[in-house]
């Protein structure tokens, strides 16, 4: 029997499981999934967990149940592509015939002194729980800093405002306007929402140092009771240590068929893969669809297409609390209740098909 090993139970590898199980897995192949927690986590919703507007069970989905799917709950210490095995923290080593690495990302602190030690995170469910405990145990009037006004920072700031209207929230944006790569209409709408709801947006910020109760924006010093870092990501440290070629962002360079060059048995999906689009759950799922097609052809001994289909993303949706939202879909900016409704619908459909 061949053993297909999936590292990480994120969006990419969940799509791999959805495509192969229950009826499209060859009779001579078994699957082993390794993850640190016993459920699939909806990482795109960690902002709500941290803000206190979603409960823990709302951001979890159970893994599939199948007699040829083995689940191992462990931390991954290393990936040895030369010997085709995975080194686990407590369960020894795990051999594979084919491997899909989907270990996601970690915070990137850009060498800012004190950032790693003195900020909170929403990159894992464990860290999001800790951030929730910190933010929601703060006394009224506490000063909260959120560094990074990308999608995660915007959604966290807005959701926290609704959860804790008594807090003093500052959102630090490195750019001159929020979401500068999107139409100005979206930027103006989001900025107006923050103004109307008392969230202070600090534009053109350049965080140079973080201390336990202070945030330094060049020469400006902001007293803070808690700081959450949403200002950049990098691949998992396990992937950064793999003996494979990577791009300048430490993401693994792949062939058009999503495997490591010179090794048709190792695939990388999601945040750790060097792709022409910004990392996202949607991109990981699109890539996973193609990886499954490639695996099935290789298992059958069929030739691969010289060129894979272009991965087309449907757009971006974000929330501003529970009633408002924003998005860029089909080259069109959308705002207000319609955008929030669409995002809620997408989340419901995802849970329905995976739960």
Polypeptide structure, described:
Strands 5-2-1-9-20-19 form a 6-stranded mixed sheet, with no helix packed on it. Strands 13-12-11-17 form a 4-stranded parallel sheet. A 3-stranded antiparallel sheet has the order 6-7-8, with no helix packed on it. The protein has helices at 11-20, 46-51, 115-118, 125-136, 151-163, 184-196, 237-240, 281-300, 337-354; strands at 2-7, 29-35, 40-41, 60-61, 69-73, 76-80, 85-88, 93-95, 98-101, 105-107, 143-147, 168-172, 200-202, 207-211, 214-217, 220-223, 226-229, 233-235, 259-260, 263-268, 315-320, 324-329, 332-335. The chain has 2 domains: 2-36 and 74-106 and 233-300, FAD/NAD(P)-binding domain; 109-231, FAD/NAD(P)-binding domain. Helix content is 28%, strand content 28%. The chain is built from 9 helices and 23 strands. The chain is of the alpha/beta class. The protein is globular and about 60 Å long. A hairpin with a 2-residue loop joins β14 and β15. The longest helix is centred in the last third of the chain and has 20 residues, at 281-300. The mean pLDDT is 97. One of its GO terms (molecular function) is NAD(P)H dehydrogenase (quinone) activity. Pfam families: Pyr_redox_2 (PF07992). Belongs to the NADH dehydrogenase family. InterPro entries: FAD/NAD-bd_sf (IPR036188), FAD/NAD-binding_dom (IPR023753), NADH-Q_oxidoreductase (IPR051169). Keywords: FAD, Flavoprotein, Oxidoreductase.
